[in-house]
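Handout, section B. The chain below has 660 residues.
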Amino acid sequence: MTPSPFFDLDEFLALPRVAGLAVSPDGTRAVTTVSELNAKRTEYVTAVWELDVAGERPARRLTRGTKGESAPVFTAAGDLLFVATREVPGADGTDEPTASLWRLPSSGGEAVAVLDLAGGVDAVHIARAADVTLVTAPLMPSAADVADDARVRALRKDAKVSAVLHTGFPVRHWDHDIGPAEPHLVDVSGSRDVTPRPGGGLREADVDLSADGRFAVVSWAVPGPGASIRHVLVRVDVAAGTRTTVADDPLADLGTPAISPDGSAVAFIRESHSTPEKAPRMTLCLMTFGEPVTTIAEDWDRWPASVAWTRDGSSLVVTADDGGRRPVFVVDPADSSVTRLTSDDFAYTDVCPAPGGAIFALRSSYSAAPHPVRLDRDGSVTVLPCVDAPDLPGEVVDVSAVADDGTAVRSWLVLPDGDAPAPLVLWIHGGPLGSWNTWHWRWNPWLLAARGYAVLMPDPALSTGYGQDFVERGWGAWGFAPYTDLMAATEAALRHPGVDATRTAAMGGSFGGYMANWIAGHTDRFDAIVTHASLWALDQFGPTTDGAYWWAREMTTAMADRNSPHRSVGEIATPTLVIHGDKDYRVPIGEGLRLWFDLLTRSGLPAADDGTSPHRFLYFPTEGHWVLAPQHTKIWYQVILAFLGRHLRGEAEELPDTLG
């Protein structure tokens, strides 16, 4: 057997990674993208690969650009469009190439440039039955038209101006500043702007183009009270460039529009606005144009995550978290009946219905990285050959605990190979509205399992896939039901014969980091704490996060005070590794800086008079919320493994030379 790549960080980072899926209108072709490390091992380069829809032949690589290709889609004629940053023939070469649109003809031959814009191309939208293509592209507000955008950009570049004047909220998002350019929809034919003066409406927008190319439906951002934004559905006429709001709910965000094949209706997902007393709820909705919105499967106690139409327009294909999985469901819009199509332990994404009833998708789990499959009408699954799956250094088991209030709390437990009981690492998911139900390249338990750790991944209160009541148990009370659920799950895992109950650690990122901080101040059960991109002082976090308005909706000042981990800093007597990126705008760097200072000065385990401390602070000046650069991902794991090794195994804290 080939040794598992999880024993070596370099081998793990070099594993090819599959993402995205596109299927031709006639269902005879399918493509995905595969990302691999570049020669310097500092970034991933993505290429487009063609799959055999019958599941018999190996995948075939189609593109080989030095900077990679992404966002592949098929035109109505069967040509393949993709986005690539490469030199466009005829360009003067004075500026660095931007992400441009390219076409690979179905008849074969070389790819040709279709659209090159000064600000690049962000996304591609195709009409399935007409020769119409739209792209999402950033344009400067002062530009007279698409062509004039280059002039405005040159003015700023030549004058070395980076300033942005804002008139509304937000001003930044996740890891990047917003503005001054705004996303527009541009018709590739003639490079025509079909959404002039969008006013930020297309920021983070979901876009669906009708099969005949006459119109698009967009989840459009509009200002709300208290510096907030909300999303309505807007119909955009492609030829005229006019916009009409077709669905507007002041108490909810409307998104993920899916236009019916005949263009008569649009299905979408409604997310109700949360309040301090009530969690949001996701519901599936349908609107025939010109008629009121109706709710489909209103009594279905699951949150739809994606929605698409079958090609005959008779049903909706929906994914939703469910008990640590994300199955595919078929929903009948006529009678709201919900039928589960898949019954395996996988999470499905990138769902693409095809003619004849077949459905193509990617699926993954903690036993398998994302890979393409075909689902047939009877629910049978055919794996489409793509990249080889890596051997895993252990097994995954499903474990259950009972919380203080009698609620069942389930978890995945990763157990390493070998007979000896393993030290346990409790790994808490982020969100908090989420679930440990899919493969993560960034948060990967197998790297710990390869080094002899058992890894517990629970779904505590606030997790999705267990019903609305399960979410409500933790709403506005992050430090209560989620905390007691995590402790119950931990105690259940410690009773497993493959786990060493005397050596434990807790770790998490974002909300998971918040919970790690809360755990550190409320129990001495663990020998080490790792907290990444974590919320620490909620009075500080609320007004400074990039989405401050949604935080203001979720917790009152009193609730934030009651749930803030920093109030218990004096009780922290566990060695803690703090990790934060300076470009993290979701959980700003101030949280990490304040946590670090508080640990050294006010915790129950402060720095000694000579400045030494068992705590550590791993700081990434150029990274955001996730730490994505491969070389930084490697350091992230190296430091965590050294920290865990010291405090759970008594090993010397050996750190990489790359830290200086």
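Note. The mean pLDDT is 96. Compare this with the example in section A.
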